[in-house]
Amino acid sequence: MKQKSRRNFIQKTSLGSLLLPSILQSLPIEEKKVKNFPVTIATWNNKKAIEASWNVLHTGGSALDAVHQGAMIPEADPEDTSVGYGGFPDREGKVTLDASIMDQHGNAGAVMFLEGIMHPISVARMVMEKTPHVFLAGSGAKAFALENGFKEENLLTEKARRAWENWKKESKYEPKINFERHDTIGILAQDSNGDLSGACSTSGLAFKMRGRVGDSPIIGSGLYVDNEIGAATATGLGEAVVKKVGAFSIVEMMRNGMSPQKACESAIKRLLTLKNYKDLQVGYIAINKQGEYGGYSLQPGFQFYVIQKGNALLVNSKSYFKNK
Ligand code: SD4
Questions:
Q1: Does residue 135 sit in helix, strand or coil?
Q2: Which residue segment(s) compose the domain that 298 sits in?
Q3: Distance between CA atoms of 41 and 190, rounded to whole angstroms?
Q4: 247 lines ligand 1 (CB under 6 A)
Q5: Residue 114 lies in a domain
Q6: Are strands 39-43 and 282-288 parallel, antiparallel or unpaired?
Q7: Over the stretch 252-276, which tens digit does the pLDDT of each residue have?
């Protein structure tokens, strides 16, 4: 009796161990992998933007349309003082906008120092799709927008004008970043085909020098997408991000095998060689080709919003410094 059951056991296990690998081998590739996409992620508590992006993704739309639609939400929101309409002006009282976009083919378009156009992300996409160029700046970017049907609008809201009037009383030129609260949007998406795209849009630093351009429109700094590897985007003090070519460095670290989380952490640590690193804030977010995501910041207070396979999550980012 005893012997029989032992034989049964041996038969079962040996059968099992023989069968299992061949069953796995016969499964189609897709069923072996866990799919983490569609997924979309944005800097800060950009809930409405990420919902707009998700609406595109879950109805089968492209990652490019998703990030474009997402970025348009804060651009049109007068309450958002870091992006588009309602953005705080430069020190001369003029709202100047920067934006960039990249698609799954590695195409890129960007505008910088653009005035009077509410949706710089749409102009950036048009630069990418209708011109042989990547960057258009200032009056040239504006002329291109107007020629292509965009309307000129006054983007300075009463709230932003009053903030500028207040700032002028002291006119303290201190292009420092507020640690806790910005709404500059960097947004990434992976659609149901697994393709990646990204967008970034901002009015830049409040009361900046006229003509100042940050990281957000600079391909490789504020935004980078490589459809084979992943995508990354930045928020915070643009000068620091540009000096470290932030988004590109994160994608390259993912190429070398790091997870999005580890790559963001490593890119933040690279900021520590900057003289003023204790006084500035930078936040990075990233996704990889498997739909995994991560985010990290230098100072506490950074948040990002994710929707992955329908589940929405506002994440309080981990940071290098724990408390300020
Ligand atoms: C800039 N990176 O122009 C932007 C500012 C920003 O949240 O992200 N603010 O430097």
A1: strand
A2: 39-316
A3: 9
A4: no
A5: yes
A6: unpaired
A7: 999 999 999 999 999 999 999 999 9
User: Total domain count for the chain?
Assistant: 1
CB proximity list for 217: less than 8 A, separation 6 or greater = 98, 99, 100, 110, 111, 112, 124, 135, 200
- What tokens appear for 16 in the block? 């099992």
Lowest mean pLDDT among 18-27, 149-158, 160-169: 18-27
How far is it, in rounded angstroms, from Cα 88 to Cα 58? 34
9 assigned to some structural domain: no
Between residues 20 and 99, which one has the greater pLDDT? 99
Which amino acid is it at 67?
Answer: V
Residue 215: CB within 6 Å of ligand 1?
yes
In a domain, 236, yes or no: yes
CATH number, domain at 291?
3.60.20.30
For residue 291, report the distance from its CA to the centre of ligand 1, in Å: 25
Give residue-wise pLDDT tens across range 106-115: 999 999 999 9
Please check the confidence at residue 8 and state whether its pLDDT lies above 80.
no
Q: State pTM to two decimals.
A: 0.89
Model pLDDT, residue 183: 76
Which candidate, 243, 242, 248, places its Cα nearest to that of 263?
A: 248
283 CA: nearest ligand 1 atom: 8
Question: 198 pairs with which residues across the strands?
Answer: 102, 188
- Tell me the one-letter amino acid at 222: G
Residue 85 lies in a domain: yes
What is d(CA 66, CA 68) in angstroms, rounded to the nearest whole number? 5
In the predicted structure, residue 21 carries a pLDDT above the cut 80? no
pLDDT surpasses 60 at 98: yes
